[in-house]
């Protein structure tokens, strides 16, 4: 791999992770907005809410080690996780389909992915994942769940027909209440799935049996 390409990716990731450290202010503003009504994604329009560097590096390696080519991501935000996945599929010869509800976030993500030199490995869809990911039928090798937590289970069920033996699913933020139904579904279904909590219990990595 060309050393310059690696440096562009790593330096863009480093800038984005550094800026994401200021998320606590952005999240605070979002939480205030949702005092009198349920939280909604637009309350966090200015926040990255990203995976950590450790998670990104581990998931990039998992995608490479398992030679995953078709990667689907729910919840792009500003593209930090997408950049890790796109860097991985550049090496496996695959593609990332990622989807973000908010147009302003998707536009920034597209720019960040471009800055990292990875646009050709990413298809970014704008809108509700339940709509933007409906209708595809090609197999999924790696699915990343990181959007609105209540949608993990319905989205997983919608995409389930596209799983195959060896498909990997990583669900982030399993310590959040909204993920409970999803966790129960995959953990109870032991004939179809084998799962383990990793990253200090934040991530649930599931193998399709
Ligand atoms: C936790 S952030 C994603 C962080 C990103 N994966 C990363 O690590 O850099 C969740 C994102 O999902 C988006 N989102 C929420 N509901 C969605 C939906 N129904 N469809 C698509 N995106 C959604 C939010 O707008 C938010 O930007």
Give a brief rundown of this model.
Helices cover 43% and strands 17% of the residues. The chain is α/β, with parallel strands linked by helices and 209 residues long.
Task: Detail the topology: elements first, then pairings.
Layout: H1 3-20, H2 23-33, H3 53-65, E1 70-74, H4 80-92, E2 95-100, H5 103-115, E3 122-126, H6 129-132, E4 142-145, H7 152-159, E5 168-171, H8 180-188, E6 193-198, E7 203-208
Parallel strand pairs: 1-2, 1-4, 2-3, 4-5
Antiparallel strand pairs: 5-7, 6-7
Helix pairs in contact: 1-4, 3-4, 7-8
The chain binds S-adenosylmethionine.
S-adenosylmethionine binds next to α4 and β2.
Query: Rough shape?
Result: globular
So how many helices?
A: 8
Strand adjacency order, main sheet: 3-2-1-4-5-7-6
| Beta-strand residue fraction | 15-25%
Bound molecules: S-adenosylmethionine
Uncertain residue segments: none
Give the name of the CATH superfamily.
Answer: Vaccinia Virus protein VP39
When the domains are counted, the total is 1
- The portion of residues assigned to helices is 40-55%
The gyration radius over C-alpha positions equals 16 Å
Counting DSSP E segments of at least 2 residues, the number of strands comes to: 7
- Listing every helix as H and every strand as E from the N terminus to the C terminus, the arrangement reads HHHEHEHEHEHEHEE
End-to-end CA span: 33 Å
The CATH topology corresponds to Rossmann fold
Largest sheet descriptor:
7 strands, mixed
CATH class: Alpha Beta
Structural class: alpha/beta
| CATH architecture descriptor | 3-Layer(aba) Sandwich
* Average predicted local confidence, pLDDT: 96
